[in-house]
Specification:
Largest sheet of chain B: 8 strands, antiparallel
Largest interface: A-B, 26 and 30 residues
Helix content of chain B: under 10%
Number of strands of chain B: 12
Oligomer: heterodimer
CATH topology of chain B: Jelly Rolls
Largest sheet of chain A: 2 strands, antiparallel
Number of domains of chain B: 1
Number of domains of chain A: 1
Strand order of the largest sheet of chain A: 1-2
Radius of gyration of chain A: 25 Å
Number of helices of chain B: 0
């Protein structure tokens, strides 16, 4: 069972309790949102990497050396 | 320069059962800034560690944004999100895939937390884990809420938990 730890700054009391049904439901919503967000981020990173590789291949086809391509990339 | 640096409440050390979140409540409005020091590790496997999140005043609305730069040890990158998230990203934790017993360290600074404007947050986080990939982040986040911050909750990614020996401390700063 998932638990939450709470520090009451007014009293100094520290309590550990099980998550409420509402908190558990929110956790599931957050998990779904996080999974969707990660999928978007992974797709964007893959697209960026593919675009970079494509650009580097085109530059190489134009006759640029790897050092020249690296200089353009930095 | 700040001339006070007072711990509010007590340091939380997560016990053997882990924790789904760590929350500080009834935060007094008597300081100018807040600082959270958080050392954590997640119980989920992840190749590069995981993000951690914060919510203020139990606000689960889409009122948080972030912008950050990060390095993995071999590459640098940046990312961001507009005000659409239900929690602010505020650093990193190591994961179950990281070297055993390594924990990430984060400092989360919140100026003017008792003011009536949106709250900006600056964060630096590192998750050195004695492995090839080890992310460090420099992160800016924003909560659009205009109420004074009276509670804050630190949350791991998705349905993971903070593991035993993760710690959180809250400090109030005056005259910053």
């Amino acid at each position: 069972m998932a638990t939450a730890i709470e520090v009451n700054c007014a009293t100094g009391e520290v309590t550990e309790r099980e998550l409420t049904a509402e908190e558990l439901a929110q956790r599931e919503v957050d998990a779904a949102a996080a999974a969707a967000r990660k999928a978007e981020e992974d797709a964007a990173a893959e697209a960026a990497a593919a675009a970079k590789a494509s650009a580097q291949a085109k530059l190489a086809a134009l006759g640029l050396t790897p050092e020249e391509i690296a200089a353009l990339s930095n | 320069m700040a001339n006070t640096y007072i711990q509010i409440g007590s340091t939380v050390t997560v016990g053997s059962g882990g924790a789904a979140n760590v929350e500080f409540t009834s935060i007094p409005a008597t300081y100018t800034d807040l600082l959270i020091k958080f050392s954590g590790r997640s119980d989920q496997a992840a190749s590069n560690g995981q993000d951690i999140y914060i919510q203020f005043n139990n606000d689960t609305g889409s009122n948080y944004s972030f912008r950050r730069v990060y390095g993995t040890g071999s590459a640098a990158a940046s990312d961001s999100a507009s005000v659409s998230a239900t929690a602010g990203r505020v650093g990193r934790v190591t994961s179950a895939s990281s070297t055993a017993l390594t924990f990430a360290s984060n400092e989360i600074y919140i100026p003017n937390y008792a003011g009536s404007t949106a709250k900006s947050i600056s964060i630096d986080g590192v998750e050195e884990n004695n492995a090839t990939a080890s992310i460090m982040v420099l992160n800016a986040a924003l909560w659009t809420g205009t109420a004074a911050i009276t509670s804050l909750k630190i949350i791991p990614l998705a349905t993971s938990n903070f593991v035993q020996y993760s710690t959180a401390s809250l400090y109030g700063i005056k005259n910053s």
